Write a sequence for this structure.
């Protein structure tokens, strides 16, 4: 069940939307984001179960299988520091994804069409559910503690299902287009670390000599429920551990991260407050049990490893009064989903409610119709409204 904090936030919204003697006097709907409003017991969150998976190849083409899955293959635990040069191959063997192409929910929607009739409970289960990417939910979880980056989420309802898709904010677009060379190199280092730590086959050895192509991705599709809100979401998975105690996903999945070396208690405190929060949110949602991090020196060489069990991350920050609380994160997310479900009531794929948030303020809503915010592609809408035929064999066309 939702905590009192989540109920209070949703209740304030409901009163704001329905109060007043006439439509003209109604205040604009909004949702507060202060962490103190969402303190309370941890809400119900159903253990995530994997429904299926899909892969994206080097050309970003969709494949409804696990061909892009990689296997965790770390170096031996004993011996000297790993000889991982995260700058090696940059920029000659770097092929980043074209970020100007806004994919929306397209790949997840293609998977959904292929498996809609096979879902537990049948296609009707989706009525009332929320369909989105794991990354969008991660941003919701971290909102009460985020100090720098705002977000926008577009929401549309189709046959009872609520779809959430991120919209790039003007500030985020400006930052992306003016991304400094050092930041681009740091992004490469994260992918390069994965190359050092993963093999193409169980028991195989990593091959870091190849191209780093960020088009390639293995994505898992999960089912869960937060409070009263059924969830179907997908997220990229870095690798699977063939030696994990349980071979049942997501218990065998591993998240890989990099960070700069820490040399003082103050640096570790900042790391726990900010970066670890995002690592926890990203891994907790799909039930990935651990994050393996490589800590690099200023020259880009990995000097040490550390494993962070997802369910133990909060223990590292529990005594910090200015730290984060998982209950606050999940209660706010539950309150936002209630906010979105009660706000987006009309079943129209071209009608978009745009939820916007900037640090220090509430979540606000604006209403739009059609371009540029409508995100459910024509091929998906037509398939869903025509008794769910199989999707085309080729890549999904652009809307």
């Amino acid at each position: 069940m939702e905590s009192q904090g989540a109920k209070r936030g949703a209740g304030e919204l409901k009163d704001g939307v329905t109060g007043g003697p006439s439509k003209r006097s109604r205040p604009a709907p909004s949702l507060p984001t202060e962490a103190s409003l969402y303190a309370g017991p941890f809400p119900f969150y159903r253990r995530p179960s994997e429904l299926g998976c899909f892969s994206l190849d080097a050309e970003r083409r969709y494949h409804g299988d696990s061909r892009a899955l990689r296997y965790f293959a770390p170096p031996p635990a004993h011996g000297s520091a790993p000889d991982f040069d995260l700058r090696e191959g940059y920029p000659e063997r770097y092929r980043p994804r074209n970020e100007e192409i806004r994919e929306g929910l397209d790949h997840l929607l293609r998977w959904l069409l292929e498996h809609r009739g096979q879902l537990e409970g049948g296609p009707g289960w989706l009525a009332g559910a929320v369909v989105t990417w794991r990354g969008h939910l991660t941003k919701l979880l971290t909102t009460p503690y985020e100090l720098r980056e705002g977000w926008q989420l577009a929401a549309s309802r189709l046959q009872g299902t609520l779809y959430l898709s991120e919209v790039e904010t003007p500030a985020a677009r400006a930052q992306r287009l003016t991304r400094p060379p050092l930041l681009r190199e740091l992004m490469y280092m994260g992918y390069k670390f994965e190359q050092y730590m993963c093999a193409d086959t169980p028991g195989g050895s990593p091959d870091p000599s190849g191209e780093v192509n960020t088009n390639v991705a293995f994505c898992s599709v999960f089912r869960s429920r937060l409070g009263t809100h059924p969830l179907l979401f997908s997220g990229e998975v870095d690798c699977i551990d063939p030696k994990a105690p349980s071979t049942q996903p997501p218990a065998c999945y591993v998240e890989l991260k990099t960070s700069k070396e820490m040399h003082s208690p103050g640096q570790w405190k900042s790391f726990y407050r900010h970066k670890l929060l995002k690592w926890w949110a990203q891994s907790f949602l799909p039930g990935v049990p651990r994050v393996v991090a490589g800590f690099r020196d200023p020259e880009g060489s990995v000097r040490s490893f550390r494993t962070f069990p997802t369910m133990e991350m909060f223990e590292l920050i529990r005594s910090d009064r200015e730290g984060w609380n998982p209950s606050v994160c999940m209660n706010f997310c539950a309150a936002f989903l209630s906010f979105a479900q009660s706000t987006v009531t009309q079943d129209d794929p071209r009608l978009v409610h745009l939820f916007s948030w900037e640090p220090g303020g509430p979540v606000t809503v604006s209403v739009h119709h059609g371009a540029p915010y409508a995100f459910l592609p024509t091929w998906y809408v037509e398939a869903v409204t025509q008794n769910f035929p199989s999707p085309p064999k080729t890549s999904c066309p652009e809307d």
